[in-house]
Amino acid sequence: MQRRDGGPDVKRPRRTAARALLAAALIGGPLAGPAPLRAQDAAPSATALTQLIGNALFWNQRGQPDRARQELERALALQPQNPDLLALAARLAYQLGEYDAGDACTARLREAAPQDPRLAALAAEQRHSPAELQVLAEARKLADAGRKEDAIRLYRQFTRGKIPDSLAVEFYLLLGGSSTEGFIEASDALSAVMARWPTELAFRLAYARLQTFQEGARAGGIELLRELTREPAVAEQARAAWHETLLWQGADFQTRDQLEAYLRAYPGDPAIEAKLKEVRASLPDESVLARMRGWEALSSGRTEDAEREFQAALAATADDAEAMVALALIRRKQKRFPEATKLLDRAYELAPYRRDEFRATVGDGDQPGQPPAEDAGKAVRARYAEVRRLADQGALDKAETLLRQLMRRDRTAGNFVALGGIQARAGRLAEAEESYRTALTLGPRGADALAGLSDVLDRQGKASESEALRAEAEEKLTRAGDRAGLRQLDRSRADRLRRQATGTGDPVARIALLRQGLGLDPDHPWLRLDLARALQKQGQGAEARRIMAEGVAGTAVSPDALKAAIAFAYETDDLSLANRLIDRLPPRERSEAMRTLQQQAVAREQVQAALTSGDEPSRIRAALLVLAAQPDPAGVRGNEIGRALLRLGDKGAARSALQAALASTVAPTPQQRIAYAGVLLKAGLTRDARALVRELDRRGLPEPSRRLLAQVLDGIAVQQSDRLNEQGRPAEAFEALAPRLSGDPADPGLNLALGRIYQDNGRPREAQAITETLLQRHPDNLDVRLTAVTTAIRRGELAEAERLLAETRDMFPEEPRVYVASATLAKARGQNGKAMNDLEKARMLRERQLVKPE
């Protein structure tokens, strides 16, 4: 017999508190801290036993198996023949690779309970050498890093293809989240494990969590989690998993019911209440629901039910044109033509731009040789729904092709509005403008056509006509009480202001435009991020952080808002905050880059602990080198250590650290090579950096790694070119740049290096032209700006240099190189005192940078 969630239907014996705690042995959730054993608990009482087991589980989960073993030994001293204790002790020993101890506990279990079903599973535990256990450790690290396929491969290698029950929870949850095939295999395997260990709640909890990974099984998983909240040993972990699953569920009626069920069990949960409010707000109102039920009844041939639902829709919303058309269709079937005509006329009056669409739905009646009108209407509706689906998925060409097929018969204003929207999203603004203008000629000037045309005109720089159309659209939407339309119009205005801000080189004006946009659309996460970035550049970091914090306040926060806040936290070097924000994201929204970021936060904490230990510099370097020798498949730890050593001014130690990290890895990953090459490049070790990435094939890399590799290769070319140029070999310097420039002719770093070749070899005019072009294209690039300042000083254009420098200082108030450039300008003017002050300011800012991670 099977339960609805697919798990075996087993009768569970009544549990003692000790048995309940034992069942949590494989659960990763939190346990309370260990409690000291009191004198009155020295007798073999249930209380003392429960306390000892709880302490053992606590220490085991915190990576202190020796202390866990001590607690278990004390528990076994109280009840040496307890089968549950012996089974737990055996499993713990096998997990730690202590096979003799595991065998001894298994033998004692066999004596105490010869028929215990766990004996077979324990006997199947494989013996592993220290080298093999290192493979398991590496598999777990890969799993933590989100590299599921690599981790699964190493798990299978470690277990020789047969997963023991001691690894069932961690492996099958990993496998189940990797693919549909993995989910099926993991579900079947965990069901078998549950059958072998019918009293172990840990496996049932893992199975329930696994079911929530797949859409079709999620409802059953949630139901099983709800059942497990009644089991004291796993109640908190089950509730937490139930809670998390509900928060990243989609907005539908089933989710609404599940949220309400949770609140009945745990009333007053603010996150769930906010989610429920969000779901309810996104669900259709009663008029729409009635209409949906009506169409479903009509397609099933239940005409009377359909008629009743469409009438209910009109009772809820008297001006529901779609319900009128549906009811007209029924009246035609009933041969009540005058009523049908009256309903259609009213629908046309309410939505004249949809006349052709409504006529296609109703048809000309059921004439011989024609399909029933409702069937034809249903087919048309399905094709329009497909257009929307394709557009939402970004398949704009396919969406447009299908829409144009529909428009051969139905050249309605609404269809031209939809066509204009698709063309605008594809960046074909002139075509979109034509489509919106056509829509306006086919019927009354609808607000959607006006707003769409306004946006397209604005993007083409036709501001005055755009504003007039937007005002007309706003008036129509206000008169109609269309709040959703007004919100969309505000977002369109906010996007317009954001585009204007992007195009201005004035940081004060940019901030003003972004503030205005955020006032119109406070829920626009990327506009909020732009504003925070602009404020941060102006030295207004506190306000920037406040603005980003407001965007993720509360519990019902969109994934995009969290992603924007994560990006800002990372850019401002607040990895701890970035990590916490990533934890709030639904698992399916977490990218590989975010998982790398979490590793970086851990690595940075380790490095900072060494740097701030108070030890002698030699000991700090030694500690960092020991840390570097640990496996580092993503290259994160070595990157942090190498950069830390560079900040200490020790290039040799940085190189040694990376060599140690590479030596600890059997086959360094491309990500590891690229990361280490970046550090070597920063140290000026061009040859070493080139050797690390020479053999990499960029075609097999994910997009983020391809971008990083391109940056490293560009940096290698620039350093090689600069070195050759300094040696008086300009032709070879140009040849070093040429391959990279041909691949990316607009790259600022490569072009600046080319400008240096021209400047140092008697061609200052070409160098100036490059700098001016770069300044126009990249006004926010610090290197470009400083080069422009230096070029102006060399030409003797000190006023121009001062103007550029003032702009640059406003944009980068905490950058020491700006003050070095200011000192150079002051020296050119003979202002030696000011030059000394600027250099002192640069020194202070640089020291401040050195005490912070990069």
UniProtKB/TrEMBL annotation:
One of its GO terms (biological process) is UDP-alpha-D-glucose metabolic process. Residues 360-380 are annotated as: Disordered. Involved in endocytosis. Keywords: TPR repeat. GO terms for cellular component: membrane. It holds the Pfam family TPR_19. TPR repeats lie at residues 321-354, 413-446. The lineage of its organism: Bacteria, Pseudomonadati, Pseudomonadota, Alphaproteobacteria, Acetobacterales. Belongs to the YPP1 family. This is Tetratricopeptide repeat protein.
